[in-house]
Amino acid sequence: MRRLHIVILCFIGIIAISSCEKDDICVEGDTPLLVIEFYNISDTTAIKNVPTLRVVGVGQNVTVNTVADRTALSTISIPLKTDVDMTSFIMINSSADNDEGFETGNIDTVNFSYQRMEDFLSRGCGFIVNYDELQANTTIDSDNWIQDIEVTRTQVINSDSTHVKIFH
């Protein structure tokens, strides 16, 4: 009888241990950001800061939280939309407010189009979105500060290197 109790306890212990699941903690990654570098239009190999740059998503009332607002920057990382195949940003050179609170900087709109590729990482992380066939252009206005855009990598699968060069 004692032997039967020991066998039953061992059987219950094995079932209890085998029913445990791993924690669903995600450490593998996240959807990559689009990396943009700004270059001098006169010397296309020279990186050039944009003075007091402000970046706002089109249709948004707040600045992009991955970019320090109104700071001189030569490189930025911005998120692309994961639910549609196009994202547009308002990029403001020399951003400032006048006495009435209106923007006085030079405003250009940059449009990015792409194909989304969902990638399942794990149960804890779920899906991330990578991007392929990246294209970029500016909306032409009477005073564009952005003179040219070059897509250097058409796939956005990590945030380790530059995807787009903007010349000003």
Give the helices and strands, then pairings.
Elements: H1 2-18, E1 34-39, E2 50-57, E3 71-73, E4 75-78, E5 86-93, E6 106-122, E7 126-138, E8 148-151, E9 164-167
Parallel strand pairs: 1-9
Antiparallel strand pairs: 1-4, 2-3, 2-5, 5-6, 6-7, 8-9
Fold and architecture overview:
Helices cover 10% and strands 40% of the residues. It is built from one helix and nine strands. The model has no long low-confidence stretch (mean pLDDT 90). The chain has one domain. It starts with a helix and ends with a strand. A hairpin with a 3-residue loop joins strand 6 and strand 7. The protein has 168 residues and is mainly beta. The protein has a five-stranded antiparallel beta sheet, with no helix packed on it.
